[in-house]
Amino acid sequence: MTSTILRPVGRSPVDGPELAARLIPEEEMRPWSVDAVPALPSFASKLRECERLCGIPYAETPHDVQDALVLRRLGQMINTVLLNPLWRERLAASGVTGPPATYEEWERVPLSDKTVQRDMFTGARSGMVVPLAHGGFEVVASGGTSDGLPLEIVYSLRELHDTYRIAGAFMGTYQLRDHLAGGDPKWLFTNLADYQMWSSGTMVGGVLQQVPGVNYIGAGPVTGPVLEHMFSYPGPKAMMGISAGIAILSDLGAGLSRQARESFRVALYGSGVLPQRKRAELRAVFPNVAILSYFAATQAETVGLQLSDDSPWLAAVPGLHLVEIVDGQGRAVAEGEEGELVVTRLHAHEAPLLRLKLGDRMIRRPALDGPGLKTGRFEFAGRTGDVLHINDSQYSAAIAYAALRDRLRETTGMDLDAAAHDIQFVNHREHKTITLLAAVDDADGLTCALSAALGPTGVHQVFVGALLRSLSLFNDREATPEAVERTGYRFQLAFVPRSSPEIERTAVGKVPLVRDRG
């Protein structure tokens, strides 16, 4: 079998398929009625039994054992959703009438998007296998939808709490343990300020509360005095928030005592990327801090965790979700290739949602396959919407920025990562102009320096070269310098003051990488 779930298949002394069939026996594979579904043993109980039989933590079991058990669980999920008429019709349209024998067969299951999620789990919630009237559910809403329409998902409370425990234990063992060491009390804060109904307000907090051995505080919005009070507690500290909420800590913490600043050990940021400028500012104030990504989304409270600040690669939590990186046909991409992030929650008997596209692009990376932890890894490559549309061609904004940054560094010595607090591409389609806005401390000085180094047309030429290195997955043979010039587009770089209103921000302070105007 090829590894859709980001992992090569290794061999182990335990026969994976035989063990999987023992863990999920045939009588549990095929619930014959909706009433039988809530009585199914939880998938978390199967992971615990796998640990007992193998004698090691599930996250450290061989890849072929994990792959076999997950495939068995996916087959059980298919049998379960076939009890629902809406799912049965949806799967039949793709030729899926029973459980997959291989991961290649699983890829025949149609991809779901936010529209499918909305249709199945908002309003009548007709995608649920067990009706909402049964009770025991939690409804969680998304606070970040771009179209402004409600987007909700439904969880079985028992299974939601299972996932909190699994993800929290993983974080404590493989991500935080070495940083939060010693005999003093250990602290894990979050400054997420969302409504508790929003996914980041309730679900991430649910995970953080389950990290063993830490004291959890859901702080909400943090001011300077509040941070000073929190950091007066003795012992090492970690904090999780959206990238903007973590970036501001360098300002809020500037007046803290040396002991308080040295006690901050881990900054966990969500929402994609924390700019290099912000990382440098954080480390200047908090000398012992490791800056790590916590990647989460509605329907997936912990998609991937960065285990070391030496590498941006994210690790999946074994047994929590099926994580796929797929091409335009929903097939797994090869290692090193970029694709769409697709997640299936494995702990979802009563309200499953199969193969949900989260709206992010990832690069599939080599799996961890040494002693200890064994899991798939991937690297964030940008939001699906982080694309520069130039006539009929599409360019990755993240790659275009990296190429532009590198070229400017080579030709002028200017480092955008070090200078910019925020960056944003603005595509004025009607006027055929793309501008990269960079919010900096000395906008006038950098503007003069750039003009002196490159002249009136230099930025345009550097921009064109960067675009040629940033073609999207589906347009990789379309553009040449001449073709880009024929589009009639002009490209420019503009330095603006820090917190300039020219850079568009969301209601919670996020800076989208791309904005289209007209």
From TrEMBL:
Keyword Ligase appears in the UniProt entry: yes
Molecular functions per Gene Ontology: phenylacetate-CoA ligase activity
Coiled-coil zones: none
Record has Ligase as a keyword: yes
Keywords in alphabetical order: Ligase
Database matches in InterPro entries: ANL_N_sf
Catalytic activity, EC: 6.2.1.30
PANTHER family xrefs: BLR5969 PROTEIN
Protein name in the entry: Phenylacetate-CoA ligase
Protein's organism: Actinomadura coerulea
Lineage of origin: Bacteria, Bacillati, Actinomycetota, Actinomycetes, Streptosporangiales
